[in-house]
Design a protein that fits this description.
Blueprint lengths: L2 E5 L2 E5 L3 E5 L15 H31 L7 H14 L7 E4 L3 E7 L2 E7 L5 E6 L4 H15 L1
Antiparallel strand pairs: 1-2, 2-3, 3-4, 5-6, 6-7
Helix pairs in contact: 1-2
Length: 150
């Protein structure tokens, strides 16, 4: 089995051994991904903070440009640039780690939201909620639930 699908903040890749949360959905990205641990949580948090700091800097540039505009017009191009940067970089905010299929305890599907309950790298029960899972992903996860129950 080798499947992947999109969700709100990235991609989920699934093979015969692991479920991966990735930013690109590219299988080569999965080779270096580790199980969820304090280290991966820290990496994901720092990545998110950098993203929001970048957006904040862009918003400050827009505000500065508006304040200095002599004609009083808002620089639409700069505003569109900030919006485009946000959309383009949004996937970089998603979590990035792997979950061995053998450690998945349950998968709960509620509309387009999925809660994966699993044991992390320290064998402590943990969970991940992924939002806006596409229909293809809901179908793949439904099949995975059946496979895990066997």
């Amino acid at each position: 089995m080798k499947e992947y699908f999109k969700y709100d903040s990235g991609y989920v890749n699934i093979n015969d051994e692991n479920l991966f949360l990735t930013n690109s959905g590219n299988w080569s990205e999965t080779a270096a991904i580790e199980e969820k641990s304090s280290k991966t949580i820290r990496k994901n948090t720092v990545k998110g903070l950098k993203f929001y700091a970048f957006i904040l800097v862009l918003l400050c540039l827009v505000a500065l440009s508006v304040a200095r505009a002599k004609s009083g017009s808002i620089p639409i191009g700069l505003i569109l640039l900030v919006f485009a940067a946000f959309i383009y970089m949004k996937r970089e905010v998603g979590s990035k780690y792997k979950i061995p299929l053998s450690k998945i305890k349950n998968i709960e599907i509620n509309g387009s939201e999925v809660k994966i309950i699993f044991l992390n790298s320290n064998n402590v029960e943990d969970f991940e909620i992924i939002h806006k899972v596409e229909n293809k992903g809901l179908s793949i996860l439904t099949d995975l639930i059946q496979t895990l129950k066997k």
